[in-house]
Amino acid sequence: MTIHPKLKRWVNAMAKMCHPDNIVWIDGSSEEKERLEREAVSTGEVIRLNQEKLPGCLYHRTDANDVARTEHLTYICAKRKADAGPTNNWMHPKEAYKKARDIFSNSMAGRTMYCIPFSMGPIGSPFGKIGVELTDSIYVVLNMRIMTRVGRDVLETLNDSGEFTKCLHSKADLNADRRFILHFPEDNTIWSVGSGYGGNVLLGKKCLALRIASYLGRQEGWMAEHMLIMGIEDPSGHIVYIAAAFPSACGKTNLAMLLPPEGLKKKGYRIWTVGDDIAWMRIDTDGTLWAINPEAGFFGVAPGTNSKSNPNAMATIQKNTIFTNVLLKMDGTVWWEDGDPPIPEDGIDWRGRPWRPGLKGEDGNPIKGAHPNARFTAPVYQCPSISNRVDHHHGVPISAILFGGRRALLSPLVYEAFNWQHGVYIGATMASERTAAQYGKLGEVRRDPMAMLPFCGYNMADYFRHWLYMGTLMKRPPNIFHVNWFRQDTDGGYLWPGYSENLRVLEWVMDRVRGTARAEKTPIGYIPAQEAIDMTGLELPKGAMRKLLDINRAEWLKELDEQSEFFKIFGDALPKEILAEHESLKRRF
Ligand code: OXD
Ligand code: MN
Predict the structure, then answer these.
(1) Is 90 exceeded by the pLDDT of residue 1?
(2) Ligand 1: residues whose CB is within 6 Å?
């Protein structure tokens, strides 16, 4: 199917190692989709859901030991350890290839190898990149067909000599002891073996669009970021686009698809979703930052998604969606914890066992119907709020960048950086406190610079330097903000209702960008002046806004000490500008 000699040679070499029974090229057609679905249904790899209620929808269960990204088995295989940096696992490429080759050898015997040519970004976009994934999993093919643009058009764009990322995946025997997610940035190559979980195996997503792309972005002068992209249309029809980075599971998908709250609705705001997870950003000829969403689908967390928390997501996943590790209901539809009511009386849980509400395990803990990291895979085009620029080759101009995390006591609801360099420092010191849902000590602070800790494909100190450098190239860099929807009162209750009410904060952000919103200067940055956030239709308890915007000096001094500890891991490599910002903040307190 391809006229690209290098691509042909690589596919042959990988087939020689993995020994599939046959090789099938993915063309992206609807006939192909039907054929693959039929085959996967016949082997039990997927289950066809109730086609009347959920047309085009499929169900899949992963292995019980294979339900999330495995950061401890994820490696950056640069020749020099220093190029992977102190925050990544590192293996020498020679050793990594050798280790993985042993597992890949004959791993596809009795199976088909699918060759998926895919484009991250609109096909032919100067912002885009092409990859080819070889995989022995139809589930992966069906997901990649949603998450990326696949098929013939991609090969045509590649022609006989285009650059592409070589992505190899095999489920092998799904043995966690023989599982590796290996990145070879210097070879533009990804090898993933022993897993069937999305984040580990849909190689266009975290592996290419973040780890490999961040490396390429540094070399080529652009940025690959773990960010949602959304447009806020004001009553006059003008749209301001923002990009926002929050750590995994902090509500990026919900924010990207937000519906205006009652009080602000009559103002006439509309939200346009461009992406919910990844942004590729370049400086365009006008000297400002432009972003595309390299993906074509959402791979969202199902539990917690419901018609209140995210009505647009619920509307998106009514058809042509793949559900993974959710509860399978007796009528062939699906459900998950904190989903829409009613709670079903019975079903089959994510492990394939009979389930009913209140069921307890041997340890006395409730058994969940859906795994907490259960997912939906759905085309972006089905989202009612999808932006009409999602397929635009140059994407959208970015006016503001938001960083955020869960901080019970430290960060105010919102503050704005004084300038780009100060904003980079705010991103570099981003952190989130663990919730009960996460592994580790409750309340423990996890540093997650720019939400990229698990996704940066090179030394993070150099990544900060790249951010600083990009700022020097822009004529008008975006304003940078930090938000915290999760501030708590002394009794532990949340002070801010979140969800659609977050638009009130975004309105202030938007007005700051235009220079019309009032702000107060504080040691950490600008915060909204009194009554600068429109609270029409939202009654908070007395004094709550003051608490939301309060800056607690003692907490910040503690934070500054913790930041110093964090910076130590980078040694001398840490850019002096970051240290200078840290010192200035200390001085301002
Ligand atoms: C994701 C993640 O799946 O960040 O998007 O883990
Ligand atoms: Mn993510």
Answers:
(1) no
(2) 69, 199, 248, 277
CATH class for domain 5-43+70-221? Answer: alpha beta
Sketch the domain layout of the chain as residue ranges.
Answer: 5-43+70-221, 225-295+388-588
Ligand 1 pocket: which of 208, 246, 254, 277 to mutate (most atoms within 8 A of CB): 277
Distance 425 CA to ligand 2 centre (A): 21
Helix H segments across 275-337?
311-316
Q: What is the DSSP letter of 567?
A: H
- Is the fold of 5-43+70-221 the same as that of 225-295+388-588? no
- Candidate CATH numbers 3.30.479.10, 3.90.228.20, 3.30.1490.110, 3.40.50.300; the one for domain 225-295+388-588: 3.90.228.20
> Cβ(482)–Cβ(449) under 8 Å?
no
Enumerate residues with CB within 5 Å of ligand 2 (an ion).
Answer: 248, 277
Sole residue written with tokens 């340890």:
363
DSSP line for 488-512: B-TTS-BSS--GGGHHHHHHHHHHH
Strands (E), 394-489: 396-404, 414-416, 431-433, 445-447, 479-483
Q: At how many degrees (to 10) do helices 553-568 and 576-588 cross?
A: 160
Please check whether residue 252 is in contact with residue 293, taking contact to mean a CB–CB distance below 8 angstroms.
no
Which amino acid makes up residue 558? K
Rounded CA-CA distance 547/250 in Å is: 21
- Residue-wise pLDDT for 134-191, tens only, equals 999 999 999 999 999 999 999 999 999 999 999 999 999 999 999 999 999 999 999 9
Ligand nearest to the CA of 454: 1
| 250 counts as catalytic | yes
What is the C-alpha to C-alpha distance for residues 561 and 557, in angstroms, rounded to an integer? 6
Q: What is the mean pLDDT of residues 504-517?
A: 96
DSSP state of 186: G
What is the best residue among 74, 195, 202, 206 to mutate for testing ligand 1's pocket, by most ligand atoms within 8 Å of CB? 206
Strongest mean pLDDT among 124-128, 250-254, 418-422: 418-422
- The closest ligand to the CA of 244 turns out to be 2
DSSP assignment of 62-90, as one string? --TT--S--GGGEEE--SSHHHH-TTSEE
The CA distances from residue 119 to 3, 113, 124, 136, 384, in Å, are 17, 19, 8, 20, 24
342 upstream amide cis, omega within 30 of 0: yes
Task: At 547, give phi and psi (nearest 5°).
Answer: -65, -35
Strands 479-483 and 396-404: parallel
Interior angle at CA 265, CA 261 and CA 271, nearest 5 = 80
Q: Which of 77, 167, 207, 250 is catalytic?
A: 250
What confidence category does residue 265 fall into, taking pLDDT thresholds of 50, 70 and 90?
confident
Instruction: Pinpoint the alpha helices (H) of 127-250.
Output: 138-147, 152-158, 198-201, 213-220
